[in-house]
Amino acid sequence: MYHLLLVGVMMVPLSEDLSVGAGQPWYDQEATKPQSVEGILDYLAGTGRIGIPAGYAPFRVVFKEATTGKVIQYIVHAPGFETLLALNVGQRIKVDGKVVSKGEGDAKREELWIGKMETLGAAPLNAFTEIKPIARTNRCLLQTKPGESEVGTRFIRSGKEAVSAIGLSPDEPDSDRRATDKLAEFFSIKSIDWKTQMVIYVGTTFQPRAARLTKIEITKLDVHEKGVTVYWKSEEGLRPASPYVSDAVLIPRVDGVVTFKQEQSKKTNGDKDAVPAKDRILPVIPGAPVK
Fold it and tell me: What's the Cα-to-Cα distance from 149 to each of 173, 189, 209, 264, 274, rounded to whole Å?
């Protein structure tokens, strides 16, 4: 029993500032100027070959450079602190450390020598990737936040949130299951597993100007260290009705902050798409095509 309790305590990521290399000869004697780095602590994949290669390090810190959007990886150097690092894999961390270049040519690599480390909370799965929808539909209109004018946005991670989005009363019997089943019906799937999946929605809010919208499209889902950014666009036209008045996608669950960003979709002759064709998520149009 005591062993189980001890293991349970050890598996809880620490939240206070942790001294790693600070005060250690291998860190203090390195002349590189310290800097602050924020990213995700992760395991570093091996080569697949038998045996441990020279200079092998089991951990890395990954982050996206704000100016270029490029994903950067630093190999972690913290000899003697492997157990501490293993307990915090998957956490967002802030590091006071030194970035040291090792090797030459193709063998050159950047190492992050950790002086002090602070954990900032769990990072979402699939960070720094563009995830693809499991299913999508534009056959549903969900309730969104009050005050949103032309287009409303919503994300759903539980049956309780599905009840609110569908518009059922939470006091109704088995409302969580009924709302989840209704969403699954919209997506033409058997069920939704809220432990591993979530729903992202963008749609009109029945405002006067929204009646002019002929298309709403979620174009890209970008997972970062704090959550996911949903890119979407809308188009206006003279047609009074269209099946494109909403777009909803079922995706792998991403914990953290959900941010919605509208893209400019107005184009003239010679203009290029706001999102490259290879990155676009094509809508699924139910029924016959619009003429």
Answer: 33, 31, 9, 17, 23
| Beta strands at 197-204 and 246-252: parallel, antiparallel or unpaired | antiparallel
Is residue 93 domain-shared with residue 168, that is, in the same domain? no
Given 80, 99, 122, which residue is the final one in a domain? Answer: 122
Q: End of a domain among 122, 151, 185?
A: 122
Q: What is the value of pTM for the model shown?
A: 0.68
Annotate the chain with three-state secondary structure.
CHHHHHHHHHCCCCCCCEECCCCCHHHHCCCCCCEEEEEEEEECCCCCCCCCCCCCCCEEEEEECCCCCCEEEEEEECCCCHHHHHHCCCEEEEEEEEEEEECCHHHCEEEEEEEEEEEEEECCCCCCEECCCCEEECCCCCCCCCCCCCEEEEEECCHHHHHHHHCCCCCCCCHHHHHHHHHHHHCCCCCCCCCCEEEEEEEECCCCHHHHEEEEEEEEEEEECCEEEEEEEEEECCCCCCCCCEEEEEEECCCCEEEEEECCCCCCCCCCCCCCHHHCCCCCCCCCCCC
- Over the stretch 190-199, which tens digit does the pLDDT of each residue have? 999 999 999 9
Per-residue pLDDT for 131 more than 70? yes
- How many structural domains comprise the chain? 2
Based on the domain organization, do 181 and 275 belong to the same domain?
Answer: yes
Which of 120, 46, 39, 116 is closest to 81 using CA atoms? Answer: 116
For residue 52, the enclosing domain spans 2-122
Residues 137 and 236 both lie in one domain: yes
